[in-house]
Design goal:
Blueprint: H1 2-26, H2 41-58, H3 61-69, H4 76-89, H5 94-110
Helix pairs in contact: 2-3, 2-4, 2-5, 3-4, 4-5
């Protein structure tokens, strides 16, 4: 009975070892030419936060808008608003929320409002 358990444990360990060898050494996944829109929501929110931090430091709204445009096909304002919603939902620190709000306010002031609408 004991030798049966030993063989079982050895077989499991060998399977795990072989799986790791194949997955990490022999045939690892290689991501080539991926775009930022393939990021998960948490990484997208972190990217927008980094853009907000850079905007806070240099005040270059045009550059911030270009950076946000690389993240998604939607308008930069919508991207930043979605990041803010995510940040609030997962309890980002208040300082980070404020940075995102500051970026959103700047984007709102730079985004022309459609004719006939009031904001």
């Amino acid at each position: 009975m004991r030798s049966r358990w030993i063989r079982f444990v050895i077989a499991i360990a060998a399977g795990i070892g072989l799986g790791l060898l194949v997955g990490w050494v022999i045939a690892p996944v290689k991501y080539v030419d991926t775009t930022l829109d393939s990021l998960r929501a948490d990484y997208k929110a972190d990217y927008v936060l980094m853009v907000a931090e850079t905007y806070q430091a240099d005040g270059n709204l045009g550059q911030a808008m270009q950076r946000l445009a690389t993240l998604d096909k939607r308008p930069p304002l919508q991207i930043a608003q979605q990041a803010l919603a995510y940040a609030i939902g997962v309890n980002y620190p208040a300082a980070d929320i404020n940075l995102l709000n500051h970026l959103i306010q700047a984007l709102q002031s730079a985004t022309p409002t459609p004719k006939g609408s009031s904001q």
